[in-house]
TrEMBL record:
It holds the Pfam family IspD. Its EC number is 2.7.7.60. The gene is ispD. Residues 1-26 are annotated as: Disordered. PANTHER family: 2-C-METHYL-D-ERYTHRITOL 4-PHOSPHATE CYTIDYLYLTRANSFERASE, CHLOROPLASTIC (PTHR32125:SF4). The keyword Acyltransferase does not apply. This is 2-C-methyl-D-erythritol 4-phosphate cytidylyltransferase. GO terms for molecular function: 2-C-methyl-D-erythritol 4-phosphate cytidylyltransferase activity. InterPro entries: IspD/TarI, IspD/TarI_cytidylyltransf_bact, Nucleotide-diphossugar_trans.
Length: 237
C-alpha cells in the first residue's frame, strides 16, 4: 500500500515557510490528516506493508506528529517512510521501489483523502479478487458539465455540454496487480503525467471502476476541512 503524502498543498495555502507543515499534517478531529487513512490501511487484513512517501525535509516532522495509537503493534502492517518526488507521479514511482518484492498487489492512495472506510476497500479488493488488474473508485458527477474557452474580459465562451451519464470523478485508493503498476511506471508517456490508472490504461491494460464514496473528499482547499471534519466525526477510530 502506497500513501502519497509528499505534496506541498499549494491550493490549500501551502506551508507558511518552504519547509513548514503541509495540509496532510493539518489537525483533523484530533489526528493529522494523513493518520486517518494510514490507521485504516494498516489494520486491514491483506495489507502487508504501507509505504508512506513524504517530502524528505518533513520526515522528522511526520515522525513527531505520529499518533500514539499508530505505534507498531501486532496486527498492524509495518510502515516504511520514504522520500517523495517533485510531482505525484514521481512520488508514486519512488514509493513503488520500496514495496516488498513478494507483494501481489499495490494500492496507491492520496494521504489527502482521510475519509475512506472499509466498505470502499471491500469493493476494491473484491474487484481485484475477481481478477481485475486495475481498479479505481469513481463517483457520479453531479453538476452539468460544459466545455469552455477563455474569451478575455473575465468570461469564457461556452461550448458543448458533455454527457454526464458517462462520466465519473476519479478517487483513490487505486488498486493494481503489482506487475502492471510496475510496468506502468517504467513506461515513458507521450503526454504529461497522469494518475496511476491512466498510466496503466496507456499500457492497454483494462481498467475498471467500482462505486466510490462521495464522502471520500480530497483535502484541496481550506473549505474542504469542514466537510472532512464532519466525515471523520462519524468514522470508527
Ligand atoms: N503528492 C505527493 N507528492 C507530490 C505531490 C502530491 O505525494 N510531489 C500527494 C499529496 O500529498 C496528496 C496527493 O498526492 O496526498 C494528491 O495531491 P494534491 O491533492 O494535488 O496535493 P498537493 O500536490 O499537495 O496540493 P496542490 O496540488 O494544491 O499543491
Ligand atoms: Mg498537486
Amino acid at each position: 500500500m502506497i500513501l502519497a503524502a509528499a505534496g506541498s498543498g499549494s491550493r490549500f495555502g501551502g506551508p507558511a515557510t518552504p519547509t513548514g507543515p503541509t495540509k496532510v499534517e493539518e489537525d483533523l478531529g484530533g489526528r493529522p490528516v494523513f493518520a486517518w487513512s494510514l490507521a485504516l490501511l494498516r489494520a486491514r487484513a491483506g495489507v502487508v506493508s504501507v509505504v508512506l512517501a513524504v517530502d524528505p525535509r518533513r520526515r522528522d516532522a511526520f515522525a513527531a506528529r505520529w499518533p500514539a495509537e499508530l505505534a507498531d503493534a501486532a496486527g498492524l502492517a509495518p510502515v516504511r517512510v520514504v522520500a517523495g518526488g517533485a510531482d505525484r507521479d514521481a512520488t508514486v514511482r519512488l514509493a513503488l521501489a520500496a514495496v516488498p518484492e513478494d507483494a501481489t498487489h499495490a494500492a496507491v492512495h492520496d494521504a489527502a483523502r482521510p475519509g475512506i472506510d472499509d466498505a470502499l476497500l471491500d469493493r476494491l479488493f473484491a474487484a481485484a479478487a475477481a481478477g481485475h488488474d486495475a481498479v479505481f473508485p469513481g463517483v457520479p458527477v453531479a453538476d452539468t458539465l460544459r466545455r469552455v474557452q477563455a474569451a478575455g474580459g473575465g468570461v469564457a465562451r461556452a461550448g458543448e455540454t458533455v454527457d454526464r451519464e458517462s462520466l465519473v470523478a476519479v478517487q483513490t485508493p487505486q488498486l493494481f496487480a503489482i506487475g502492471v503498476l510496475r510496468r506502468a511506471h517504467a513506461a515513458t508517456l507521450p503526454g504529461p503525467p497522469t494518475d496511476d490508472a491512466g498510466r496503466v490504461a496507456a499500457l492497454g491494460v483494462p481498467v475498471v471502476c467500482v462505486p466510490g464514496d462521495p464522502r471520500n473528499v480530497k483535502l484541496t482547499t481550506r473549505a474542504d476541512l469542514a466537510t472532512l471534519e464532519a466525515r471523520v466525526a462519524d468514522a470508527p477510530s
